[in-house]
Design brief:
Two copies of one chain form a homodimer. The first copy, chain A, has about 575 residues and is mainly α. Chain A is built from 24 helices and eight strands. Chain A has a six-stranded mixed beta sheet. In chain A, strands 1-2 form a two-stranded antiparallel sheet. Chains A and B meet through helix 7, helix 12, helix 17, helix 19 and helix 20 of A and helix 7, helix 12, helix 17, helix 19 and helix 20 of B.
């Protein structure tokens, strides 16, 4: 029954839903409460980071979580706005010249819809593998740089001033121009909130464990710092009427759930946001999948990359239509969800309901919430993103990887997120091509008394004047064919009595068409010099492809299963005239 | 003596010049005459193809050849304007909005200088390897498409009309609008010239051999068809006064050599030509090096890629300052040079002098040369560029390569040269990443009675419940780490009694930092499941890098020299509780 299969494939909820038990509901409910308490203040804060009204963060979380619970495959992943994607959203929208806040919001909806459409399309076309083309160290460097930019962008809220810019240079200049307007009460609230949340996370957790709380409960409660900080700072602002002393608060926040919104699909807007939407989609997908994969391994579960794309696509389209902004799977909230015992995607569904209830009943109290408190929440959250160890690690392991990593870090900080990640992806590809473009090639000879062949430079081996035995330790493809042609020319030029070249193919995993053409050319060129080209120890899958080619048919020499056999066969030609 | 070395390195003429003998001079002189006779009409025709005055082709050849003979390393390469690069020049200049012919010429000089500067810089920075990143089948497809575009662009001269456009669509539309103005006398001259040159190449050569000429002499003479065509058609136009019957001729061509020109370096012009200059430089370099490499192999010589860049850079800068346009090593003229017996780069120097003499003494007779004859010369010349066999070949060998090749061909024809080659390069890189992103991975077991391990799917082998032996047939790098992580998760999920995972690394030629991090992560995740990760048969160069990493220090299992040893050691753990 084809429709059945299709439904099952694209609606994972049918699979886990039919096996749902009461004990699952208990586990999922506990996790939902813990995650909702963590996610509500974060959602508000991240909307502000993206340059949008705070409530859009709630809408994004509610509808993102809802859709993912139907379409997603990970039982632990928690969906919503995340810091790096919110920063990229701000950068994408900041490039446009928009007349009003309403236009800015409309553009955000369009961007979100585009992200959803791109993710969905990639999923339906089964192009999830494209995420693999991003190198992990490059993404680490990008996330570290993004964390720094996010921190720098929040300084304005801590100081009660207004800065602009999407890189460190612009933010720094803007800060130096406006710092005279700093409000010390705002700063005090911000610093208090930072210290309070950190104490909750570290000090209080240890205290709770000491007085006999279990690990899981203490860990979960220690994540509630932000919500308490929100309540406490709001009360302080209300009681002392600090709004009149220059402390910026959220002010009027609409009550209840949003109506259906239709994004603006005018050609100019779509055209100018498309590239940003692609970058946001890919970064969001890669981040989300990394978390999902890590947590799935711990549970011995599987996740389906293409269905993950469908799930994230649906989440973003829903977020767009409900007046939210781009969402994806967040690292720390998913780990919290996992640790709190979420056993199915229903945990996300329940989280969604809890946040919706909060949006309906508690938004009026947000009137007095100081923006400095939200900035504090973000600053604590992103502190875990910043990790320079990748610089040290790549420096020690490979200078080429280090070059790609440091380029990404520097360009993201100095120019911005889009150029930074684009340059990083490009650099990691160029580095890979470069590293494989000069493969390790050994001229080999026989270790006396064995059938083994080793590098003539490192071992005492037997060679023959009329034979050149070459082992290439790399797949042959366009980026290294020219190097190998050149090397072969040089090696041949060194041996005037040469009659046979034997390529030992044991370490060759692939041969592309460029390389095949180069082999054909080499075969022809060597023939003109009365030198035969032989192959030895070609792997099965490669032989299957070579067998039907002109190259193999026209090969001047033979194809040997063993290199030793080849040398034994050919060495006696030495005596020939 | 450092300066001595530097001079020797950057001025190859010092090396071969000091060994120059009288017999070399004779060989080089003969080759120079043959090549000059071939190159003079081609240079004129290619300048017209680039949309420039005919004499600029002569200037480009004279000074390109001159400089290359000092700085180049190939004894056979013949420098000058070539068809594909001339087409790309026309496309690059066609994108600009230029007010007059003088501005068009000035922009050509700037473009040429930029090409020279880029080539020189790449050479001095020793970045010649960048040319390797172009896949040969993609270049073949690009050259075939360019050949078709060149042919289509010459139809106007054969018909005596004027068309515009840099792709087949625009050229076709333009042709259908102007074809009513076709001049039949012009067409007759063009067809006569095509047939005449073809007869010279094929019919006359066989005739000459029949009447006893040597192979070399007959071949050389058969290449002189274009110059005879030029003389004959010019005489016909002069005698019958066909200029008044609507046959377009070159008209006034300046006599003698040009003065020094200084290109226009205004920011806007440089900025809008820079990307084109990069593409032209790279394509020119790749074409030139391919020829040089092929001919060097035949002579058992070496060429130095970086010094080749210096040579081509100097040639283009000189061409620019002398009022020429982009030059590079041409395929057919280099083969002619080689066949005619050129023994050193002095052949190029002599060719340069001969063309200079022609520019001084023979330009007045070009007044009557019909453009249709030059179009005929180009059409015959490019007919050898067009080769669709790469489509068939790639289709048979690999569908992914076919996709890259056909994309390049289609986009070049339909949109233009720059988009075509850029898309081709990108596609070939994506294809390579894709192919290596899902590497061949085998779960292996022991062939009974041997120490060999083979794929469990294809062989009757011995396996153990507590051991998973995996052989990965590919280097580990960012594009395949995620796939391998996923595969490992799945394989582990299938074996509930698993205690040991052994990675057989015999076919792994490289491990990049992304892959190292993935291995670290896998090691940690498996540890949490009480499963140990072991390595076996790691190659020497890889072990040298791994030895100092945290991964290797924290590896839960062991590193075995032989896979069999690993299995023998670990299989008895089976009995453990």
């Amino acid at each position: 029954m084809r429709t059945d299969n299709l439904f099952n494939r694209y609606l994972p909820i049918l699979r886990w839903g039919s096996r749902y038990r009461q004990v699952d509901l208990l586990d999922d409910s506990i996790a939902a409460v813990v995650v909702a308490i963590m996610l509500i203040p974060q959602s508000l804060a991240l909307a502000i980071l993206a340059g949008l009204p705070a409530q859009m963060g709630l809408y994004a979380s509610i509808f993102g979580l809802l859709m993912y619970s139907f379409f997603g495959t990970s039982s632990s992943l928690s969906i919503g706005p995340v810091a790096v994607v919110s920063l990229m959203t701000a950068a994408a929208l900041g490039k446009l010249t928009l007349a009003s806040d309403a236009e800015y919001i409309a553009a955000a909806l369009t961007l979100t819809f585009l992200c959803g459409g791109i993710l969905l399309a990639l999923g339906l076309l089964r192009l999830g593998f494209m995420a693999n083309f991003l190198s992990h160290p490059v993404i680490s460097a990008f996330i570290t740089a993004s964390g720094i930019l996010i921190g720098a962008s929040q300084i304005q809220h801590l100081l009660g001033i207004s800065t602009s810019g999407h890189n460190l240079v612009d933010l720094g200049l803007s800060l130096s121009n406006t710092i005279n307007g700093a409000n010390l009460i705002t700063l005090s609230i911000g610093i208090f909130a930072i210290l309070f949340i950190l104490w909750f996370r570290i000090g209080l957790r240890q205290l709770l464990k000491k007085i006999g709380w279990g690990d899981r409960a203490a860990n979960a409660f220690s994540r509630a710092g932000p919500i308490f900080a929100v309540v406490i700072t709001s009360v302080i602002v209300f009681v002392y009427n600090l709004g009149e002393r220059g402390v910026q608060t959220l002010g009027e926040v609409p009550i209840g759930l949003p109506g259906l919104m239709i994004p603006d699909f005018s050609f100019d807007l779509v055209n100018s946001l498309l590239r940003s939407a692609m970058l946001i989609s890919i970064i969001g997908f890669v981040e989300s999948v990394s978390v999902a994969q890590t947590l799935a391994t711990r549970k011995r579960e599987r996740i389906d990359l293409d269905q993950e794309l469908v799930g994230l696509g649906a989440a973003n389209i829903a977020s767009s239509l409900a007046g939210g902004f781009p969402v994806t799977g967040g690292f720390s909230r998913s780990v919290v969800n996992f640790d709190a015992g979420a056993s199915t995607p229903a945990a996300g569904l329940l989280t969604s309901i809890l946040i919706a209830l909060a949006a309906i009943f508690f938004t009026p109290v947000l009137y007095w919430l100081p923006k400095a408190c939200l900035a504090a929440i973000i600053i604590v959250a992103i502190s875990s993103l910043i990790d320079f160890s990748v610089l040290q690690k790549s420096w020690n392991y490979s200078r080429a990887d280090f070059a790609a990593v440091s380029l990404t870090l520097a360009l993201t900080l100095v120019i911005g997120v889009e150029i930074g990640i684009a340059a990083g992806v490009l650099a990691s590809i160029v580095v890979h091509l470069y590293k494989t473009s000069k493969p390790h090639v050994a001229v080999v000879g026989k270790v006396p008394g064995t059938e083994h062949y080793r590098n003539v430079d490192h071992h005492q081996v037997i060679t023959h004047e009329n034979i050149l035995s070459i082992r290439i330790d790399e797949s042959l493809y366009f980026a290294n064919t020219r190097y190998l042609e050149k090397l072969l020319t040089e090696l041949v030029a060194e041996k005037p009595r040469l009659e046979h070249v034997i390529l030992m193919c044991i370490a060759i995993n692939k041969i592309d068409l460029s390389a095949l053409e180069a082999l054909e050319k080499a075969n022809k060129a060597l023939s003109e010099l009365q030198i035969k080209l032989h192959l030895s120890e070609v792997k099965g899958p490669i032989m299957d492809k070579l067998r039907h080619t002109d190259f193999f048919r026209d090969l001047s020499g033979n194809n040997y299963l063993s290199h030793n056999q080849a040398v034994e066969d050919l060495k006696n030609d030495d005596a020939a005239p």
